Amino acid sequence: MSTTTVLAAEAATFPVLPALIVIPVVTAVIIGLLPASRADYSKLAALIGSSIAGILTVYVLWNFDAADGGLQFVSQQSWVGDLGLSWFLAVDGISLFLVVLTGLLFPVAIVTTEPHHDPKPYYLWLMLLMAGSFGAFLALDLLLFFLFFEIVLVPMYFLIGGWGHGNRVYAAMKFFLYTMAASALMLVGIVALVFLARDDTGGPTFNVVTLASQHRLSSTAALLVFASFALAFAVKVPVFPVHTWLPDAHTEAPTAGSVILAGVMLKLGTYGLIRFGLFLFPATVRDLAPVFLTLGVIGIVYGAAVATMQRDLKRLVAYSSVAHMGFVVLGIFAINSQGLTGSVVQMINHGISTGALFILVGWVYERRHTRQIEALGGLQSAAPVMAGVFTLVMLSSIGLPGLNGFVGEFLILLGTFSAAPWWAVVAATGVILAALYLLWAYQRSFHGPAEGDNATMEDLRLTELFGIAPLLILIVFLGVYPKPMIDRIEPTVDVLIEHVEDRVPDFAEDEPDRLRRAGTDGLIDAANEAHSETEEHGGTEDHGETETEAEDHGETDASSETEAGGTEAGEGE
Amino acid sequence: MVLATTDSGDVVVGQPGLVELPHIDWVLLAPFLVMALGGILLITATSVVPILRSRGFPAAFTVLTAALSAAFLVPVWDRIDGGAQSVAGGALAIDGFSVFVWGVIATSVFLVAALLDAYLRREGFDGPEWYVLMLMSAAGGMLLAASQELILSFLGLEILSIAVYVLAALHLRRSDSQEAAFKYFILGALSSALFLYGIALVYGATGSTSLAGIAGARADNPAGLNPLENSSLVLVGLALIVIGFAFKVSAVPFHMWTPDVYEGSPTPVVAFMASGVKVAGFAGMARVLWQGFGFYWEDWRPIVIVLAGLSFVVGSFLALAQTNVKRMLAFSSINHAGFMLAALQAIPSDEFVSTALAGQALLFYLLAYTVMVVGTFGVMTLVGRRGDDAHSLDDYRGLAKRRPVLAGLMAVLLFGQAGIPFTSGFFAKFRVIAATVESGAYVLAGLAMLAAVVAAVLYLRIVVSMYLTGEPVVAHAATDEVAVDDDVTGHGESDAANLDDGDGPIVLPKAAMASIIIAAFVTVLLGLLPGLLGGVLTEAADALAALK
Questions:
Q1: How does pLDDT run across A214-265, given as a tens digit for each residue?
Q2: Closest chain B residue to A195 measured between Cα atoms?
């Protein structure tokens, strides 16, 4: 009854979610119709279009009912009736911030980066990519999701291949085929799921909510279907053994491409694991959790280790993504409230800080025409503002308490510790390693004596600073005051956990309830207060010897985090 | 074949010496008759009145014929009203399936005629024989698609094929074209012979050549007592018939002719071969296997599954080794054949509970594929330039810079063929996968998707060539920039502008462009609104089930 009224009320208002997809498409069409002599207007058009969409996401955020863990802004249209397909769009606490992140990163990427040739098709592809990304996060029809999940490959393929660096065509091909091959079997899995569940759901339907609550697949069938889904998502994330496309694609992509790839598209994988993995096949996910936890931990350590060895700054950031996304995977497969909340938070924070890192590396490359760390050095003296911004972003990526990166990793480690303590212990080393590779890279490129072109490098322009400012503000804001975000994520995560408990009869026995529902907010606040001192250290821009200190801090942070997780969980018990 | 039967199928015993002719409902046959008579009229008129041989007339006439034929489908659709009408004493079934396939064949003729016009002008050929042969071939295909009688199927198949053998050879200055036609003819004749032999064996076993008769011979006898249950005669005949069709639709391992013939034949003719001929072949195959041999599904289904599986693997992997775009697309068409075969095998059970998914999948695939493939070969016709030789991957280098519109259309069509979302190609593949999964052939479905990824490599290679590599190695880049003029081919220009001998920019004749644009538009439209054909598709697919 209440649902119907809500649906009716939604139907009467402005269809904001379809508009999120339509606006970038319309912008793309407008850009396509611009005459060749007016190609320079395409950037403006793209900026306006993406900003309108971005503002709409803020509208969604503003009107989102924080207490409601269900679907909101539901928009449903039948599409192909006889096959049970529909345009079913909605947001909940899990997808909300991913949508907002998409709405934020695109305008920022457009402002802060430039294509060096052919602006018209460049912005056209970016706009189509934006539409596809929105669609993927909003779709709750399994096939519709798959359509958007696949279609984003095309614009990204052209962006990497057309505006990338070095070995761009190879990287574009590899990216496209790798991810397409991984999701090929997913289509078979989707169809198999729908047909096998046809009798349970009363006719074929691709509606995820209906399928999740009503399908009665045998455990073998569920395992196979989940495997076909998981492969597609694991490649996208990327989870450890299938990550090899990522360094190439990220390194050769143009800056905006890297930002979107790391900030938005990787999240399609982890989002998919939650929405179409855990939600649809809770029992299978529970059974396979140790496998994925292990892979997640390997990803964290391996990504960090390989990142340490990189000579190319951009490749280093790319490998750091492997490590950070490993945390997200860890949180998901902990299957508890903290872990999942932490994963969603970490997805957002990784998008913000890695996006910002890619932008900064892009700026360094613009000025110095190299990304080789050994060719850089002493940039700080020539570009103090850039060095300051870099420090802040880097510390956020390391996961320094008080900055956004800490919140997610802390929650994930906390959740993982209560589910699988040893994995959490190993994963915590990833935090130390992150400090190692980022600070070391920073030291080599920004400190020391500046020689040659390094000494004369141009500092950040005001427009650039203005462009990246939203990300910097969020880095600090979400680090200091993550409560509004967590408040909106948690109800949905709790609903999801309840769903898992309903569907997996023996699930609740595995872990005492109170462990999973430990007060997340209190823990965060306590941790923040405890480390507020460190935060100030990181925020200020005093360099030189402090940098080694900060490294030490990183180490202590990590160990204290584990301790905090351990003690708090212990207390909970 | 029993000549004189009533609609109920009984042999009419008339007065001695008199054969009572069956009643023929001409309206129902109108689409077919328009196509066939159009061809005859065209060759007659142009022979008698030489002035009509001028280039524009035959093309316009063919386009109009195809349009008229398609227009007649509307009253026919109303007339059959979801049911089926048998015509010519039960030899032809006019039902939703026939109408749909006829529509697809007419679409193919319509689009190819426009390409042919551009091609003939450029290559300096005139003469209506190209169009006449295409109309004849299409008429044969329509016959095959509606046939309820194996002899008539054979007749349709031969009319369809012989015309295309000749078409393949019509580029008189290219020895490749002659070679292609010869290969096509030899293997085609062999397959026809096998097909005919198969019919003979089936007739020997069942005493009938009509599909209803073949099905009835098995159905009339209770199970277990049925002498035809494991009759090797029927099975050998069935196998030969399947092989005959497999040749026509170029399913592996009967595909050997395809790359050579596609490479050598005039490009617009290949467009017709890959679309119209293949559509007719698959329609005929569906009729014969589903309607005639439905009771033998357990026997032919494994064969079709193997054919489909091999077509996936060979079609996609061998395409990777090619550098000639026409050969690439030949292998891609083999890969597509695999998908259609996968739909064909997907009959859920011998009780024919529902052929709905399989039938819809097959029909949707036929339509989507026809449109995409004609568009793709249309672009290749234009890029091929005078002499029809510029088909290497290098000839596509930098096309996006030289001819952005052409490259854009090609990219849409290629992505469609690759099955990228929001193109008709995706939903065609999706429907086939759905039908295959429903039939329980999970492995085949998985293989299909993996092969589709491998096939995507070949489409991407063309896209890379067009978009992501620099200017072409040959020297036309410089001249292109001087002569950027999309309208060089407007009316009243000298023929010299049409010659396109490889030095100037690629000429874009309006008619051919219109055809390519329509193809790309339909590809996207069916990708965004895949339910557009919903009702028609359902009714057309149900027709086969209803007629079991």
A1: 888 888 889 999 999 999 999 998 888 888 888 888 888 999 999 999 989 9
A2: B438
Range of the domain at B523: 26-218+225-486+503-546
* A478 part of a folded domain: yes
Two tokens, residue A385: 């503002």
| B317 touching A (Cβ < 8 Å) | no
Tokens representing A131?
């539409």
Top residue of A156, A191, A231, A245 to mutate, by most chain B CBs within 10 Å, is A191
CB environment A350-368: b (16+ within 10 A), e (fewer): bbbbbbbbbbbbbbbeebb
Q: Please indicate, yes or no, if residue B238 is contained in any of the structural domains.
A: yes
Taking CA atoms, A192 is separated from A143, A146, A218, B145, B442, in Å, by 12, 14, 12, 32, 8
pLDDT tens track for A412-437: 999 998 888 888 888 888 888 888 88
How crowded is residue B438: how many other Cβ atoms within 10 Å of its Cβ? 22
Q: Whole-angstrom Cα distance, residue B102 to residue B79?
A: 15
Nearby residues of B203 by Cβ (< 8 Å), 6 or more positions away: B150, B209, B237
Domain holding A517, by residue range, is 281-573
Contact between B500 and B386 under an 8 Å Cβ cutoff? The reply is yes
> Which phi and psi angles does A349 have, rounded to 5°?
-65, -40
Amino acid at position A177, single letter: L
Q: How many domains does chain B have?
A: 1
* B421 and A CB contact within 8 Å: yes
For residue B426, the chain A residue with the least C-alpha distance is A147
Tell me whether residue A313 is in a domain.
Answer: yes
Note whether B530 contacts A: Cβ–Cβ < 8 A: yes
CB A493 within 8 A of CB A344: yes
Q: Which contiguous run of DSSP H or E holds residue A77? A: strand A72-80
Length in residues, chain B = 548
| Amino acid type, A97 | F
ipTM given for this complex:
0.85
B-chain residue closest to A169, CA distance: B468
Q: Could you report the average pLDDT of every consecutive run of 10 residues in chain B (548 residues)?
A: 45 56 80 93 89 83 93 88 76 89 95 91 84 94 92 93 92 86 91 94 87 78 56 88 92 90 92 93 91 83 92 90 90 93 76 66 93 94 84 85 89 92 91 88 90 89 84 46 39 45 72 92 91 81 64
Residue B423 is given by DSSP the state S
Kindly state whether residue A518 falls inside one of the protein's structural domains.
yes
H runs (alpha helix) in B170-210: 175-206
The pLDDT, as a whole number, for residue B140 is 95
Q: Which residues contact B97 (CB under 8 A, 6 or more apart)?
A: B145, B283, B286, B287, B359, B363, B540, B541, B543, B544
> Contact, B4 vs B14, CB < 8 A?
yes
Q: CB B449 to CB A187 under 8 A?
A: yes
d(CA B252, CA A462): 64
pLDDT by residue (tens digit) across A318-376? 999 899 999 999 999 988 888 999 999 999 999 999 999 999 999 888 888 888 888 88
Tell me what percent of the residues of chain A surpass a pLDDT of 90: 30
Inter-chain contact A80–B434, Cβ cutoff 8 Å? no
- Distance from CA of residue A323 to its chain's centroid? 12
Query: How many independent structural domains does chain A possess?
Result: 1
Secondary structure in 3-state letters for A87-156: EEEEECHHHHHHHHHHHHHHHHHHHHCCCCCCHHHHHHHHHHHHHHHHHHHHECEHHHHHHHHHHCHHHH
Q: How many CB atoms lie within 10 A of CB B30?
A: 18
pLDDT tier at A533, thresholds 50, 70, 90: very low
Structure tokens, B400:
């996006």
Q: Do the Cβ atoms of B140 and B277 come closer than 8 Å?
A: no
The DSSP annotation for B510-525 comes to HHHHHHHHHHHHHHHH
C-alpha distance from A210 to closest chain B C-alpha (Å) = 19
What number of residues does chain A have?
573
Tell me if A422 is assigned to some domain.
yes
